[in-house]
Amino acid sequence: MKLLRRALLVKWHYIEHELIDFAPVTFLTGKNAAGKSTILDALQLVLLGDTTGHFFNKAANDSSRRTLKGYLRGEVAEDEGVGVINLRDGQFSSYIVLEFADERGHKPFCMGVVFDCSPDGSIEWRFFSLAEGVPDFHFIRDGVPLDIKGLRTWGQTRKNRFEMFESNKRYQEVFLARMGNLNQKFLRLFRKAVPFSPIMDIAGFISEFVCDVKVHLDIDDMRENIRHYRRMEEELHVVESRVEALSEMGGTYDAMESASGKVKLYEYLLDRAELTAKEQSVAAARTQAEGLEAETKRIEGQISAHTDTQNQVRAERDALVEERANSDAYQRQQMLEQNKRLMESEFSHVRRDGERHDRMLADNGERWRAVARSLGDTDIWWTDLGTEDGTEPAAAGGTGDAAAGGTGPVAGGRTDAGLAKADTPERKLAQSAPLYNDAIRAIWEGLSWWPRPAGWQSHRLLDEELAVSTDLDALRGSADSLKQASDLLREGHVIMRDVIGSWEEESKSLERAISELKRGIKQYDPKVLTLKQALEQGLSAKVNIFAELLDIRDPVWQKAIEGYLHTQRFYLLVPPEAFSQALRIYDDTKQSQRLFDVGLVDIAKIMDEKPRAMIGSLAEEVITDNPYARAYADYLLGHVMKCDHVDELRNHRTSITRDGMLYQNYVARQINPTRYATLYIGKMAIAHQLAQKTLRLDRVATLLHGFRPRLAQVAEWAAQPYPTSSELTAAEEFLQVLTGLPKLRGDYKAILDDMGSLDFTRLDEIKKEIARCDAVLADVAHLIRELTSKQGALKGQRDRLVEQDIPLLEVEVRDKKHFISSRYHPLEAADMSARYEQELQRLGTPETVTANFGRQLSTERNRVTESWDKLVRQRETYNRTFGAGFDIQRRDNDAYRAELTALEQSGLTDYAAQIKDAKERAQIQFQEDFINKLRSNIDTVEQQIKALNFALREVSFGGRERYQFKVSPKAQYLPFYTMIMDDMLLEGRSLFSDAFMDKHGAVIDELFRQIVDVDERDPAVQAELEKNLQTFTDYRTYLDFDLVVKDEEGRESRLSRVIAKKSGGETQTPFYIAVLASFAQTYRINQPGFNNTLRLMMFDEAYSKMDHQRIRDSIKLVRDMGLQVILSAPTEKIADIVPLVDKTIVVQRIKSQTRVAPFEPDPVGVN
User: Fold this and answer.
1) Judging by DSSP bridges, how do beta strands 1096-1100 and 1124-1129 pair with one another?
2) Residue 35: which residues within 8 A CB-CB, separation 6 or more?
3) How far apart are CA 139 and CA 1010, in angstroms?
């Protein structure tokens, strides 16, 4: 038995230097974060030989971030600004050394580790062993722990009692050997036990840690033997498959050869049938050529007879023609006919000119009459130009003044007396109305003298003379009137087009003005705004329009004020000090910008006069916050007195009524309403202007809607052509020609009379005879043409046969004979020739032979092709499957036939006997090396579980619960378990006996399939095989493990099923039982002669969920099993645990240092 006695910790986290003593049952306690887990982590590091830190502080915090570096440096905090804060920096060395006592030899020995920590943060360590106790100097010289080099030097003085290890793995091997040749699973078990957390996979834990049996079997030799005989079976199967495949290929080849023989015979029959048909064609062609030659000669005789008739009739006709030509009546008739045709031609020219003259008169007359009728509807156009209040168009011009958009006095000129009338688009268009009236008068005047068409189109030479006007002066006068009308209409079109263009521009301007008014921008003359902008750019002072600064107190005086001020409303005001500079800017820009009639007020001079508004003057109705505007308003309006009635006007030098009757300089006059038609002063100005602009826009839109289609109509009128000078010249020439028409008509009548007096009796007879001859000649000529055409066609057919077709057919016969003689062997041809003669006699014609054997040939050829394709596929499959290198396209089958013969003579029977012998040997090995060993492992595990249960039979926890381990077959693999554990094998029966195979044959085959596979070349198959091997050679595959809990009433429950439903104490207790059992197996406690092993266990946060009775029973079980345990728990468990343990150690944290001190309680007996 090997027990932990002491532990030396130097520079480990908060521990600077501590030597801690341990007993068989040691209780490590202290408050949370005092350092209990720190000590346990140090012990684990040496016990496990693991410096990765994966196991650090797992009980206190499962998500712990403790690291080896943090333990060594003494990491205490982490600050965002500073970083990690450590207790130790610079170069130092740390030690963890565990002293063990071997109770057999009573000789202490140590296992430990030394760490060298450098200022750069790097860490170097070495594990070591010492065959004696912890030295008195604790590896510290002059207050400084020895570094690795110093420890090695000291160790050399201990001769063979000290060893330092260069790797963790080597240290673990030595540690396990020193602790009694422990299994590697000790490392996993110890790491898992320390956190004292419940086991959720109870079966896995028991099979891994409680059972001490070799997990996997070595069956490589057995697998190789099985593979050997299976490879032999496969090789035999391959040979048999090759023989079968080659035999099938032989049958396919023979079928192809049979079909090929038939193909050759049928091809010969068809070739001979084709030759016979060609020979028959040559004979038929020669017979046809002879018939065509005879027919050609017969037709030639017919043509000769018709030619003689043709010559006789032609001679007769020539005599009649000569008689007619020598006749006086005929000669006179020909002369009169010629003159008659000349006169008719001359009259046709006259009539054509007359028709042209008629079209000119009709077109111009109809065209201009239509224009005149349409022009009659223009009277209503001009009424549409009246204003909306019904005034005449001239009054429509007063649409505003200069500031309203350029149609007022600033834009169109002004006088001191008021506004001059301006030409508006409506007025301009209305003034064009007389043009249309004049055009109508001109058209009717022209048409009144315009001649009507005479009707030359249907006129004939002998008809009565037509009534044709020959007054050229009247025609020219009418043409001039129509031209005048056209000019007037073009002028009207230009005016209307320009007016519509003006309205369109005005419409766009009004739309812009309305948009600006809706945004609160009043509309002023562009010249006013241009000067204002120039002054604003050149001055740093504010520039204002006078009207912008004013408002009207009483709206009834609005018109009087705006009418009186007139253009002065738009004068510009600048501060007094800026006037001189403003005047210079005005003077510099007036020419380039054409800035005339825009006022610039010298407000300084006005203010110097200190104008005062008289009581009752118009100035009282003007409101303004601007001092300059106030002064200027008083200057202009302060002496203009308001009068309610015209009778009061003479009471003042200057006075005015509400409706604008002005009395000034002893003159009374009414202010033109156009002056205040558009308001610019005060709040009402924008609304008033917007209403005016909107009204005007609607008016312009109405006018455009009405006059745009009228413009198109006027354009059409203006485009109408009038009689041109060329047309008038043509008319004059035509009328001159008409003067000779009476003579032409008289001469024509005389010719007709002469022709009527001639005697045509004999000529008529001659004419009839000539017509008869012509008819006979035509008929004969038609017959000759038909016969000649037919003769030529027949001769062509005969020549084509003799010169082309027959020679070609004879060549084809020779070629076919040569083809047959060269294609077929004479001996074969002799046999097949007899067959052909037989078939020709039976079927009658070569065509029937071709039709009959052509279908059969196609069928046999398909059979040859199908057989060949099948043979190639069979050869390709054979080569690919069996690795053969034969030519699959070779037409003979010699290579494959030889392969078949060689295989059939290879001795397959002897090979089958060898396979049977190898199979029997492999079966015996499978039973002995696999099934029997697997059964032995299962038996061993069941015995181990049985032994553990025997040890636990009297142990109860809390006097209520008893625990037993349970092992049973796993349901998933029950057929395998049943086969492995079958007692038939114990009776000496073979695994592969008939009785056993009848019972378990399917299971054995499945097991073979899972762990043995010959085709290991496939990586996927090999990976699956290795996975199955790990599964089926592991005894745990076939078993289920569990921990059965029996309460005081005898009720049993399996921990694997209720673990999630149990309370804390109920889950810790089974864990404790399972861990103790696992350590008992690992330490071989129950194996005398092999149990001189380590007995240590450690539990962090131990018994945290157990009550006092469970704790008491647990510790008693440790003592009974001969184990050593270190328990770690917080101070809350002192009362429960201290009376039960051999030693209690208190861990305290004082500032940045952990202290360890023994705790001596009053003695308490432990049963």
Assistant:
1) parallel
2) 13, 14, 15, 1147, 1149, 1154
3) 59
Q: Are strands 654-656 and 641-642 parallel, antiparallel or unpaired?
A: parallel
Residue type, 324: R
Question: What is the percent of the chain where pLDDT is above 70?
Answer: 83
What are the tokens at 875?
Answer: 């050869």
Number of H helices, E strands in the chain: 35, 30
Average pLDDT over residues 542-561: 92
Nearest one of 864, 894, 896 to 877, comparing CA atoms: 896
Three-class secondary structure of residue 815 per DSSP: helix
Residue with tokens 């009483």, as numbered in its chain: 554
Helices (H), 719-805: 725-738, 741-757, 761-800
φ, ψ of residue 16 in degrees (nearest 5): -90, -45
Q: Which of these, 857, 861, 842, 837, lies nearest to 273 by C-alpha position? A: 837
Strands 140-141 and 92-102, bridge-based pairing: unpaired
Q: Is the pTM of this model over 0.85?
A: no
The pair of three-digit structure tokens given for residue 218, joined into one six-digit string? 């070595």
- Residues 749 and 462: beta-carbon distance below 8 Å: yes
CA distance 1019 to 302: 101
How do 551-552 and 622-623 pair as beta strands? antiparallel
DSSP element (H, E) containing 279: helix 220-325
Say how many C-beta atoms besides its own lie within 10 A of residue 615's C-beta: 9
Structural contact between residues 156 and 123, judged by C-beta atoms closer than 8 angstroms: no
Q: What single DSSP character describes residue 648?
A: G
Element (DSSP H or E) covering residue 654: strand 654-656
- Which residues partner with 123 through β-bridges? 117
Percent of the chain whose predicted confidence (pLDDT) is above 90: 30
Q: If 0-12 CB within 10 Å is exposed, 13-18 middle and 19+ buried, where does residue 1154 land?
A: buried
Tokens standing for residue 196:
């004292």
Instruction: From 1085, 1136, 1162, 1079, select the one nearest 958 (Cα to Cα).
Output: 1136
Q: Calculate the alpha carbon distances from 606 to 455, 575, 1057 in Å.
A: 91, 12, 114
Residue 891 CB coordination number (10 Å): 10
Rounded Cα distance, 908 and 240, in Å: 9
Cα gap 792→434, rounded to integer Å: 90
Please state, in angstroms and rounded to a whole number, the distance separating the CA atoms of residues 1136 and 300.
153
Phi, psi of 722 (to 5 degrees): -115, 165
Q: In sequence order, what are the residues at sequence separation of 6 or more whose Cβ sits closer than 8 angstroms to the Cβ of residue 383?
A: none
Are the C-beta atoms of residues 1115 and 1087 closer than 8 Å to each other?
no
Q: What is the pLDDT of residues 287-310, one digit of tens each?
A: 988 898 888 888 988 898 889 888
> What type of residue is 68?
L
Give the integer Cα–Cα distance in Å for 362 and 762: 53
Q: What is the CA radius of gyration of the chain?
A: 70
CA distances from 354 to 476, 479, 1016 (A): 18, 19, 117
Q: CA 868: distance to chain centroid?
A: 51
Q: What is the pLDDT of residues 777-803, one digit of tens each?
A: 899 899 999 999 988 998 898 899 888
pLDDT, residue 422, reads 47
Contact assessment for residue 327 and residue 763, using Cβ atoms and an 8 Å cutoff: yes
CA within 13 Å, CB half, 1111: 23
CB atoms inside a 10 Å sphere around CB 458 = 8
Question: In this structure, which amino acid lies at residue 762?
Answer: R
Phi, psi of 184 (to 5 degrees): -60, -25
Task: Name which of 625, 636, 652, 642 is nearest 566 in CA terms.
Answer: 636
Residue 80 has pLDDT above 60, yes or no: no
Alpha-carbon gap, residue 15 to 138, rounded angstroms? 14
Provide mean pLDDT across the span 1088-1095: 90
Q: How far apart are the first and last CA of the chain?
A: 23
